Amino acid sequence: MVLLLKFSPNQDTPYYLIRELEEVGSGNEAVIISLIEEVQTTLNKNVCICAITALGEIANGNSKAIAALVEFLHRNSCDNICIYAAESLAAIDPDNIAIIKTLLNIFDSHRTVNTIWQASRLLATISPKYIGNKEADTLFY
């Protein structure tokens, strides 16, 4: 399935393969790397969202997935797709300060109500764990 994902000529196939890999790939390094590559290279936004979401489900604590999602957030902070990356990063590495930075950036840069609402919802969900965190406090104030 990993090879099919990489070399599939059909543009709809990656979406289905990612879902299948998510079912069987928990903690599997080859699957995680394949999903990271898909996030970094695909031009299809829906496939990218699917791969990001799958990483959030199967890459718990994986340093490569964490680094890839943090990089993704930095490159795409003005795009509403970053909400998916922030959610997945929160699932993989809930103490990563890049999540808060990205969500706060969304409030400054986005004008769509849906994206701001999603960022608000995620921030409300994860913010209690940042109370008393000096780095997070400087972001809020």
UniProtKB/TrEMBL annotation:
Name of the protein described by the UniProt record: HEAT repeat domain-containing protein
| High-level lineage | Bacteria, Bacillati, Cyanobacteriota, Cyanophyceae, Nostocales
What Gene3D superfamilies does this protein's entry cite? Answer: Leucine-rich Repeat Variant (1.25.10.10)
Task: Establish whether keyword Lyase is in the entry.
Answer: yes
- Which UniProt keywords are given for this protein, alphabetically ordered? Antenna complex, Lyase, Phycobilisome
Q: Which organism is it from?
A: Dulcicalothrix desertica PCC 7102
The record's GO molecular-function terms, alphabetically, read: lyase activity
Name the protein family.
Answer: Belongs to the CpcE/RpcE/PecE family.
Q: Which GO terms describe its cellular component?
A: phycobilisome
